């Protein structure tokens, strides 16, 4: 809870009542939840947990009005799953919810990896880690591929020093900083086995599932619409055939791979239009991705 909220809170009499629905509406968190629904297809268990956390903080805020003081909820999280499953987007919206409910001051998101936290020589790691924490304070610190912080096979590795600093901050500043660790589930599980202190400070473990082909098609349509493009009927059918073939290949990254495929389709569309530049173009020509723009991919050859 930010200091401003603590100073302006009013203690209610025991026989008073509070309007939870009014408090919910005044917080404007529904706007953030709606945006999350619009931005991310599927992920129902993830969205449900985010709503549960929002409800916990909302009720906690009302309890304080009656001086029903309890320990500040621990909201440090662990996001596991493959790339392109929406982890960063959820972290960003989580920061907004935390700010609107007064849990943190700013609600901004700072995304880092091991290289941003760990130095290469003695005395370098602590300043780097503390500088990152300083930037993240009042918001959310998102550590991607967090398992790389710990390298037990290297006796001269300084990752453990960064972990110790993070542990202290996560315990002592949990009313103004939320730390989210992210990475592949199997690697994060091994990381926690080697770092029980870190596991004990993580309150919420969210596993992000891979998208289905149908969900990826819905994501593709949203991505295109956001760029003022659309599929023709034949183009949509071609992309529906492309998705499962792409999923079979190495380095498939869910929504990221879909975005890359659409970028290439837009490139092919532009070259197709340019090749027939003597022809006059209308708006439909300029916004439509045709089947040939998809089928030119080596994946469908």
Describe this structure in words.
The chain has 301 residues and is an alpha/beta fold. It folds into two domains: 73-207, Rossmann fold (3-Layer(aba) Sandwich), CATH 3.40.50; 213-296, Helicase, Ruva Protein, domain 3 (Orthogonal Bundle). The longest helix is centred in the N-terminal third of the chain and has 22 residues, at 44-65. Helix 8 links the parallel strand 3 and strand 4 (178-183). It contains 15 helices and seven strands. The strands form two sheets. The chain has a five-stranded parallel beta sheet, with helices on both faces. Keywords: ATP-binding, Nucleotide-binding. One of its GO terms (molecular function) is ATP hydrolysis activity. Belongs to the CbxX/CfxQ family. This is Protein CbbX. Residues 73-212 form the AAA+ ATPase domain.
Main sheet summary: 5 strands, parallel
**Morphology:** globular
**Secondary-structure content class:** alpha/beta
Residue share in helix: 55-70%
Radius of gyration: 23 Å
**How many domains, as an integer?**
2
Number of helices: 15
Average pLDDT reading: 91
* Low-pLDDT regions: 1-8
CATH fold description of the largest domain: Rossmann fold
Strand order of the largest sheet: 2-3-4-1-5
N-to-C order of helices and strands:
HHHHEHEHHEHEHHEHEHHHEH
Keywords: ATP-binding, Nucleotide-binding
Pfam family, one: AAA
InterPro entries: AAA+_ATPase, AAA_lid_6, ATPase_AAA_core, CbxX/CfqX_mono, CbxX/CfxQ, CbxX/CfxQ_RuBisCO_ESX, P-loop_NTPase
Organism: Candidatus Nitrosacidococcus tergens
